[in-house]
Write a structure and sequence with these properties.
Distance between the termini: 14 Å
CATH architecture of the largest domain: 3-Layer(aba) Sandwich
Largest sheet: 6 strands, antiparallel
Helix content: 10-25%
Bound molecules: FE2/S2 (inorganic) cluster
Number of strands: 18
Number of helices: 9
Strand content: 25-35%
Order of helices and strands: EEEEEHEEHEHEHHEHEHEEHEEHEEE
Radius of gyration: 21 Å
CATH superfamily of the largest domain: Nucleotide-binding domain of ferredoxin-NADP reductase (FNR) module
Structural class: alpha/beta
Mean pLDDT: 91
Strand order of the largest sheet: 4-3-6-1-2-5
Oligomer: single chain
Protein backbone atom coordinates (compact mmCIF):
# COMPACT_ATOMS: atom_id res chain seq x y z
CA UNK A 1 0.00 0.00 0.00
CA UNK A 2 1.41 3.36 -0.97
CA UNK A 3 0.82 6.12 1.52
CA UNK A 4 2.39 9.41 2.46
CA UNK A 5 3.09 8.01 5.91
CA UNK A 6 6.33 8.73 7.75
CA UNK A 7 7.83 6.80 10.59
CA UNK A 8 7.89 8.96 13.73
CA UNK A 9 9.40 7.98 17.07
CA UNK A 10 7.53 8.38 20.33
CA UNK A 11 9.51 10.61 22.67
CA UNK A 12 7.16 10.84 25.60
CA UNK A 13 3.97 9.35 27.00
CA UNK A 14 2.14 11.18 29.78
CA UNK A 15 -1.05 10.06 31.52
CA UNK A 16 -4.00 12.40 31.12
CA UNK A 17 -6.98 11.89 33.40
CA UNK A 18 -7.91 8.33 34.23
CA UNK A 19 -8.00 6.87 30.73
CA UNK A 20 -5.95 8.89 28.28
CA UNK A 21 -2.38 9.63 27.31
CA UNK A 22 -0.58 12.51 25.71
CA UNK A 23 1.68 11.03 23.09
CA UNK A 24 4.62 13.05 21.78
CA UNK A 25 6.31 12.20 18.48
CA UNK A 26 9.67 13.38 17.19
CA UNK A 27 9.77 14.92 13.73
CA UNK A 28 13.23 14.69 12.18
CA UNK A 29 14.63 17.61 10.21
CA UNK A 30 13.96 16.03 6.82
CA UNK A 31 10.37 15.27 7.85
CA UNK A 32 9.71 18.83 9.03
CA UNK A 33 8.31 20.18 5.72
CA UNK A 34 5.63 17.49 5.72
CA UNK A 35 4.69 18.02 9.34
CA UNK A 36 4.00 21.72 9.54
CA UNK A 37 0.49 22.17 10.85
CA UNK A 38 -2.08 24.66 12.00
CA UNK A 39 -3.61 24.53 15.47
CA UNK A 40 -6.77 22.42 15.35
CA UNK A 41 -5.44 19.90 12.84
CA UNK A 42 -4.83 16.22 13.54
CA UNK A 43 -2.45 13.38 12.76
CA UNK A 44 -3.55 10.02 11.40
CA UNK A 45 -1.65 7.16 13.07
CA UNK A 46 -1.39 3.53 12.11
CA UNK A 47 -1.22 0.68 14.55
CA UNK A 48 -1.00 -3.01 13.80
CA UNK A 49 -3.35 -5.03 15.95
CA UNK A 50 -3.50 -8.80 15.49
CA UNK A 51 -1.76 -8.57 12.13
CA UNK A 52 -4.09 -5.94 10.74
CA UNK A 53 -3.22 -2.30 10.18
CA UNK A 54 -5.68 0.27 11.47
CA UNK A 55 -5.61 4.04 11.07
CA UNK A 56 -7.13 6.61 13.38
CA UNK A 57 -7.07 10.40 13.62
CA UNK A 58 -5.91 12.19 16.79
CA UNK A 59 -5.96 15.93 17.31
CA UNK A 60 -2.71 17.75 17.88
CA UNK A 61 -2.38 19.60 21.18
CA UNK A 62 1.18 20.90 20.82
CA UNK A 63 2.10 24.25 19.35
CA UNK A 64 3.41 24.43 15.79
CA UNK A 65 7.04 25.04 16.72
CA UNK A 66 9.72 23.72 14.37
CA UNK A 67 12.02 21.24 16.09
CA UNK A 68 9.55 20.41 18.85
CA UNK A 69 7.76 17.06 19.12
CA UNK A 70 4.13 16.90 18.00
CA UNK A 71 1.73 15.77 20.73
CA UNK A 72 -1.65 14.14 20.32
CA UNK A 73 -4.22 13.16 22.91
CA UNK A 74 -5.32 9.51 22.84
CA UNK A 75 -8.19 8.35 24.99
CA UNK A 76 -9.39 4.81 25.57
CA UNK A 77 -12.60 3.96 23.77
CA UNK A 78 -14.78 0.96 24.56
CA UNK A 79 -13.79 -1.56 21.90
CA UNK A 80 -11.43 0.97 20.28
CA UNK A 81 -8.63 -1.14 18.86
CA UNK A 82 -6.16 1.64 18.04
CA UNK A 83 -6.74 3.91 21.03
CA UNK A 84 -6.64 1.05 23.51
CA UNK A 85 -3.55 -0.44 21.89
CA UNK A 86 -1.78 2.92 22.13
CA UNK A 87 -2.81 3.45 25.76
CA UNK A 88 -1.49 -0.02 26.62
CA UNK A 89 1.65 -0.15 24.48
CA UNK A 90 2.92 3.30 23.60
CA UNK A 91 6.35 3.97 25.08
CA UNK A 92 9.31 6.21 24.23
CA UNK A 93 11.39 4.79 21.38
CA UNK A 94 8.51 3.04 19.65
CA UNK A 95 7.99 4.06 16.03
CA UNK A 96 4.58 4.70 14.51
CA UNK A 97 3.46 5.25 10.94
CA UNK A 98 1.99 8.72 10.78
CA UNK A 99 0.35 10.64 7.97
CA UNK A 100 1.02 14.37 7.64
CA UNK A 101 -1.28 16.73 9.54
CA UNK A 102 -4.68 17.37 8.03
CA UNK A 103 -8.03 18.86 8.90
CA UNK A 104 -9.98 22.05 8.51
CA UNK A 105 -10.97 22.65 12.10
CA UNK A 106 -8.76 25.71 12.33
CA UNK A 107 -9.37 29.29 13.42
CA UNK A 108 -11.73 30.87 10.92
CA UNK A 109 -10.90 34.45 11.89
CA UNK A 110 -7.75 34.62 13.99
CA UNK A 111 -7.82 37.36 16.57
CA UNK A 112 -11.63 37.41 16.82
CA UNK A 113 -13.44 36.61 20.10
CA UNK A 114 -14.04 32.88 20.25
CA UNK A 115 -16.43 30.59 22.06
CA UNK A 116 -15.52 26.94 22.49
CA UNK A 117 -17.57 23.93 23.53
CA UNK A 118 -15.53 20.80 24.24
CA UNK A 119 -16.81 17.44 25.41
CA UNK A 120 -14.35 14.80 26.65
CA UNK A 121 -11.47 14.26 24.24
CA UNK A 122 -12.91 17.05 22.10
CA UNK A 123 -10.72 19.21 24.30
CA UNK A 124 -7.65 18.28 22.22
CA UNK A 125 -8.28 20.46 19.15
CA UNK A 126 -10.23 22.99 21.20
CA UNK A 127 -7.30 23.48 23.57
CA UNK A 128 -5.02 24.08 20.57
CA UNK A 129 -7.48 26.55 19.03
CA UNK A 130 -8.09 28.43 22.29
CA UNK A 131 -4.36 28.85 22.80
CA UNK A 132 -3.98 30.07 19.22
CA UNK A 133 -6.92 32.49 19.54
CA UNK A 134 -5.23 34.04 22.57
CA UNK A 135 -1.90 34.13 20.79
CA UNK A 136 -3.53 35.88 17.83
CA UNK A 137 -4.83 38.60 20.13
CA UNK A 138 -8.46 37.63 20.75
CA UNK A 139 -9.79 39.96 23.43
CA UNK A 140 -12.13 37.36 24.85
CA UNK A 141 -12.13 33.56 24.71
CA UNK A 142 -14.60 31.37 26.57
CA UNK A 143 -14.47 27.60 26.96
CA UNK A 144 -17.24 25.34 28.17
CA UNK A 145 -15.56 22.02 28.93
CA UNK A 146 -17.77 19.04 29.79
CA UNK A 147 -16.57 15.69 31.13
CA UNK A 148 -18.36 12.73 32.62
CA UNK A 149 -16.45 13.19 35.91
CA UNK A 150 -13.42 14.96 37.37
CA UNK A 151 -11.18 11.88 37.16
CA UNK A 152 -11.55 11.57 33.42
CA UNK A 153 -10.92 15.24 32.60
CA UNK A 154 -7.81 15.88 30.48
CA UNK A 155 -5.40 18.78 29.99
CA UNK A 156 -6.53 20.43 33.23
CA UNK A 157 -3.07 21.67 34.22
CA UNK A 158 -2.44 22.92 30.69
CA UNK A 159 -5.75 24.79 30.65
CA UNK A 160 -5.02 26.34 34.01
CA UNK A 161 -1.61 27.51 32.79
CA UNK A 162 -3.21 28.98 29.68
CA UNK A 163 -5.78 30.81 31.75
CA UNK A 164 -3.14 32.10 34.19
CA UNK A 165 -1.16 33.54 31.27
CA UNK A 166 -4.18 35.03 29.50
CA UNK A 167 -4.46 38.26 31.53
CA UNK A 168 -8.14 37.59 32.12
CA UNK A 169 -9.01 36.99 28.47
CA UNK A 170 -9.76 33.26 28.91
CA UNK A 171 -12.81 32.15 30.88
CA UNK A 172 -13.37 28.44 31.50
CA UNK A 173 -16.45 26.70 32.84
CA UNK A 174 -15.89 23.08 33.77
CA UNK A 175 -18.88 20.76 33.78
CA UNK A 176 -19.04 17.25 35.24
CA UNK A 177 -22.02 15.12 34.23
CA UNK A 178 -21.62 12.83 37.26
CA UNK A 179 -22.15 15.80 39.60
CA UNK A 180 -24.30 18.15 37.57
CA UNK A 181 -26.19 15.97 35.11
CA UNK A 182 -26.04 16.64 31.39
CA UNK A 183 -25.51 20.26 30.35
CA UNK A 184 -28.83 22.04 29.96
CA UNK A 185 -29.93 24.02 26.96
CA UNK A 186 -30.09 27.14 29.12
CA UNK A 187 -26.57 26.52 30.40
CA UNK A 188 -25.22 26.09 26.89
CA UNK A 189 -27.01 29.22 25.71
CA UNK A 190 -25.65 31.20 28.66
CA UNK A 191 -22.13 30.74 27.30
CA UNK A 192 -22.91 33.11 24.45
CA UNK A 193 -23.61 36.09 26.73
CA UNK A 194 -21.22 38.87 25.89
CA UNK A 195 -19.87 36.86 22.97
CA UNK A 196 -22.76 37.31 20.56
CA UNK A 197 -20.40 38.25 17.72
CA UNK A 198 -17.83 35.51 18.38
CA UNK A 199 -16.98 32.53 16.22
CA UNK A 200 -18.00 29.26 17.85
CA UNK A 201 -16.15 25.94 17.75
CA UNK A 202 -17.52 22.57 18.85
CA UNK A 203 -15.83 19.23 19.40
CA UNK A 204 -17.07 16.27 21.39
CA UNK A 205 -19.57 13.43 21.27
CA UNK A 206 -22.32 13.90 18.69
CA UNK A 207 -25.18 14.52 21.21
CA UNK A 208 -23.05 17.15 22.94
CA UNK A 209 -22.25 18.93 19.69
CA UNK A 210 -25.88 18.76 18.61
CA UNK A 211 -26.99 20.33 21.90
CA UNK A 212 -24.36 23.07 21.62
CA UNK A 213 -25.27 23.77 17.99
CA UNK A 214 -28.96 24.01 18.93
CA UNK A 215 -28.11 26.45 21.72
CA UNK A 216 -26.00 28.56 19.38
CA UNK A 217 -28.73 28.63 16.74
CA UNK A 218 -31.23 29.72 19.38
CA UNK A 219 -28.88 32.57 20.27
CA UNK A 220 -28.67 33.81 16.70
CA UNK A 221 -25.38 32.22 15.61
CA UNK A 222 -25.76 31.44 11.94
CA UNK A 223 -24.19 28.25 10.63
CA UNK A 224 -21.28 30.09 8.99
CA UNK A 225 -19.98 31.09 12.44
CA UNK A 226 -20.29 27.62 13.97
CA UNK A 227 -17.37 25.28 13.27
CA UNK A 228 -17.35 21.59 14.19
CA UNK A 229 -14.79 18.82 14.31
CA UNK A 230 -16.56 15.58 13.68
CA UNK A 231 -14.42 12.47 13.34
CA UNK A 232 -17.46 10.27 13.98
CA UNK A 233 -19.31 11.57 10.96
CA UNK A 234 -16.26 11.01 8.78
CA UNK A 235 -16.01 7.39 9.86
CA UNK A 236 -19.69 6.97 9.18
CA UNK A 237 -19.15 8.49 5.76
CA UNK A 238 -16.95 5.59 4.77
CA UNK A 239 -20.00 3.39 4.90
CA UNK A 240 -22.13 5.59 2.69
CA UNK A 241 -21.99 3.23 -0.26
CA UNK A 242 -25.74 2.71 -0.41
CA UNK A 243 -26.92 5.81 -2.20
CA UNK A 244 -28.11 6.71 -5.62
CA UNK A 245 -25.85 7.26 -8.59
CA UNK A 246 -25.38 5.50 -11.91
CA UNK A 247 -23.63 2.21 -12.47
CA UNK A 248 -20.40 3.07 -14.23
CA UNK A 249 -17.41 1.70 -16.05
CA UNK A 250 -14.26 2.99 -14.42
CA UNK A 251 -10.87 3.05 -16.09
CA UNK A 252 -8.06 3.35 -13.55
CA UNK A 253 -4.37 3.97 -14.17
CA UNK A 254 -2.18 2.81 -11.31
CA UNK A 255 1.58 2.38 -11.46
CA UNK A 256 1.59 2.50 -15.24
CA UNK A 257 -1.11 -0.18 -15.60
CA UNK A 258 -4.60 0.46 -16.91
CA UNK A 259 -7.56 -1.44 -15.47
CA UNK A 260 -11.24 -1.26 -16.35
CA UNK A 261 -13.72 -2.21 -13.66
CA UNK A 262 -17.42 -1.90 -12.89
CA UNK A 263 -18.73 0.52 -10.27
CA UNK A 264 -22.09 -0.35 -8.75
CA UNK A 265 -24.79 2.32 -8.39
CA UNK A 266 -23.84 4.61 -5.52
CA UNK A 267 -20.63 2.73 -4.79
CA UNK A 268 -17.57 4.64 -3.66
CA UNK A 269 -14.79 4.43 -6.24
CA UNK A 270 -12.25 3.08 -3.76
CA UNK A 271 -14.68 0.37 -2.68
CA UNK A 272 -15.09 -0.66 -6.32
CA UNK A 273 -11.31 -0.68 -6.88
CA UNK A 274 -10.60 -2.80 -3.81
CA UNK A 275 -13.46 -5.15 -4.64
CA UNK A 276 -11.86 -5.64 -8.05
CA UNK A 277 -8.49 -6.38 -6.42
CA UNK A 278 -6.73 -3.27 -7.70
CA UNK A 279 -3.70 -2.04 -5.71
CA UNK A 280 -5.31 1.34 -5.10
CA UNK A 281 -3.39 3.40 -2.53
CA UNK A 282 -5.47 3.97 0.56
CA UNK A 283 -5.26 4.20 4.32
CA UNK A 284 -7.99 5.80 6.41
CA UNK A 285 -10.85 5.29 3.92
CA UNK A 286 -12.67 8.22 5.48
CA UNK A 287 -11.42 11.17 3.43
CA UNK A 288 -8.92 12.19 6.04
CA UNK A 289 -5.47 11.17 4.90
CA UNK A 290 -5.19 11.93 1.14
CA UNK A 291 -3.67 8.53 0.39
CA UNK A 292 -6.31 7.79 -2.26
CA UNK A 293 -5.98 11.14 -4.08
CA UNK A 294 -6.18 10.65 -7.81
CA UNK A 295 -7.01 12.80 -10.77
CA UNK A 296 -10.19 12.71 -12.81
CA UNK A 297 -9.25 12.34 -16.47
CA UNK A 298 -12.75 11.88 -17.92
CA UNK A 299 -16.35 11.66 -16.80
CA UNK A 300 -18.31 13.21 -13.95
CA UNK A 301 -18.19 12.45 -10.26
CA UNK A 302 -19.90 13.31 -7.03
CA UNK A 303 -17.42 14.27 -4.31
CA UNK A 304 -18.54 13.71 -0.71
CA UNK A 305 -17.34 15.69 2.30
CA UNK A 306 -13.70 15.25 3.14
CA UNK A 307 -10.97 16.98 5.05
CA UNK A 308 -8.37 17.06 2.33
CA UNK A 309 -9.40 18.74 -0.90
CA UNK A 310 -9.91 22.45 -1.22
CA UNK A 311 -11.58 24.25 -4.10
CA UNK A 312 -8.32 24.58 -6.01
CA UNK A 313 -7.71 20.83 -5.74
CA UNK A 314 -11.19 20.13 -7.06
CA UNK A 315 -10.73 22.64 -9.88
CA UNK A 316 -7.51 20.83 -10.80
CA UNK A 317 -9.43 17.56 -11.06
CA UNK A 318 -8.28 15.89 -7.85
CA UNK A 319 -10.60 13.55 -6.03
CA UNK A 320 -10.43 11.15 -3.12
CA UNK A 321 -11.40 7.70 -4.31
CA UNK A 322 -12.76 6.86 -0.86
CA UNK A 323 -15.12 9.85 -0.90
CA UNK A 324 -16.26 9.90 -4.52
CA UNK A 325 -19.07 8.27 -6.48
CA UNK A 326 -19.69 8.09 -10.18
CA UNK A 327 -22.06 10.67 -11.66
CA UNK A 328 -21.73 9.53 -15.29
CA UNK A 329 -21.71 6.06 -16.84
CA UNK A 330 -18.04 6.21 -17.85
CA UNK A 331 -15.13 7.50 -15.81
CA UNK A 332 -11.38 7.61 -15.98
CA UNK A 333 -9.01 8.33 -13.08
CA UNK A 334 -5.25 8.25 -12.69
CA UNK A 335 -3.07 7.79 -9.60
CA UNK A 336 0.20 9.71 -9.94
S1 LIG B 1 -8.02 6.58 2.02
FE1 LIG B 1 -7.64 8.30 3.29
S2 LIG B 1 -8.50 9.93 2.14
FE2 LIG B 1 -9.06 8.18 1.03
Amino acid sequence: MATRAQSLTITDVTAQGSDAILLSLRVDDEQQPKFTFQPGQYLTLAVEVQGEEHWRCYSITSEPVTGQPISVLVRRVAGGRVSNWLCDNARPGLQLKVLPPAGRFTLARPGRPALFYAGGSGIAPVFALAREALKQGASRVRLFYANRDRASAMLLAELQALQDASAGRLEIEHWYDAEQGLPTQAGLERQTHGLEQADAYLCGPEPFMRAAATALAACGFDAARVHREDFGAAVQGAREDAADGPAATLTVQIKGQTHTIAVQPGELLLTAMLRAGLPAPHACQVGECASCMCRLEAGEVQRLDNSVLDEDDVAAGWLLACRTRAASPALQVRFS
